[in-house]
Design a protein that fits this description.
It contains six helices and ten strands. Helices cover about 40% and strands about 15% of the residues. By secondary structure, the protein is an alpha+beta fold. The mean pLDDT is about 90. Helix 2 packs across helix 6, helix 3 runs antiparallel to helix 4 and helix 4 packs across helix 5. The protein has two domains: about 100 residues, Phosphorylase Kinase, domain 1 (2-Layer Sandwich), CATH 3.30.200.20; about 110 residues, Orthogonal Bundle (Transferase(Phosphotransferase), domain 1), CATH 1.10.510. The structure holds adenosine-5'-diphosphate and magnesium ion.
């Protein structure tokens, strides 16, 4: 960052339009709009639930998810290749550091080195040690690769954070296990020859509690997505 930091806190949606380098993801139903922006030579990413969708998406879901992501990212601060929170210009949007990278899902015929998976496992264990779980690593586009071949992680909107609510402590062990399984899934897809017997077994294993937790989550998410999408202009 330069000596005079850009005023990320004061960003309006119109500023974001002007500063956009690339729209990384369009807003859609419950999903935020994600844009890479540049201000005074500094790069950042804006994740905004206020674009498209309903009043519910902006004021309730967006505010909840943006706040949860900001809390998780602040807890993770200092872990390399996890973006720092720069600002929360609106209750439903956050500005985070831009990480120069490519989503692993965009890699074509490219093998990921064993060191990549070792570094990713260490990163995920660091996150867990800080009293949380990522919660959405199964979506492989949340795992990025830097130009140096190192892993980077984004999208902490589904993070489970110890102490956030009484259910979090109950869910945490299952979501942590889910995070670890997601790494095995990634390995299976990109470098299956690196899978150990333990990892193969982990890919098959799901406890009854986890199966039920996932069912309940799916049951809750369906109406939430519908509410978020109604009356929405899709930009
Ligand atoms: N800080 C960042 N630096 C670089 N790219 C990012 C960053 N945050 C997100 N992205 C890119 O934008 C995509 C969508 O962002 P994400 O936070 O995963 O939103 P969604 O909740 O819609 O999945 C990611 O898959 C990644 O490719
Ligand atoms: Mg994502």
């Amino acid at each position: 960052m330069s000596a005079v930091e850009p005023h990320w806190e004061r960003l309006t949606p119109a500023d974001v339009d002007d500063l956009t380098v690339e729209v990384l993801r369009r807003a859609w139903r419950a999903r935020p709009e994600v844009r890479h922006i540049r201000l005074q030579g500094e790069e950042a990413v804006v994740k905004d639930y206020g674009r498209g969708g309903s009043f519910f998406k902006r004021w309730i879901l967006g505010t909840f998810l943006a706040r949860r992501e900001a809390t998780a990212l602040r807890r993770a601060e200092g872990i390399p290749n996890i973006p720092r929170v720069l600002a929360t210009p609106q209750p439903w949007s956050i500005v985070i550091e831009y990480v120069e990278s490519t989503p692993v899902t965009a890699l074509r015929n490219q093998e990921l080195a064993p060191e990549f998976f070792e570094a990713l496992s260490r990163m995920v264990e660091c996150i867990h040690q800080r009293g949380m779980a990522h919660g959405d690593l199964e979506k492989l586009d949340n795992v990025l690769v830097t130009p140096e071949g190192e892993p980077a992680l984004v999208d902490f909107a589904a993070a489970i954070i110890a102490g956030a609510n009484p259910l979090a402590a109950l869910a945490l062990p299952y979501i942590r296990e889910n995070d670890r399984r997601a790494i095995c899934k990634l390995k299976q897809k990109f470098a299956p020859e690196l899978l150990t017997d333990d990892e193969r077994e982990r890919l098959q294993r799901r406890s009854t509690a986890e199966v039920w937790f996932r069912r309940v989550r799916k049951y809750i998410r369906r109406p939430v997505k519908t509410l978020a999408g109604v009356n929405g202009d899709r930009d």
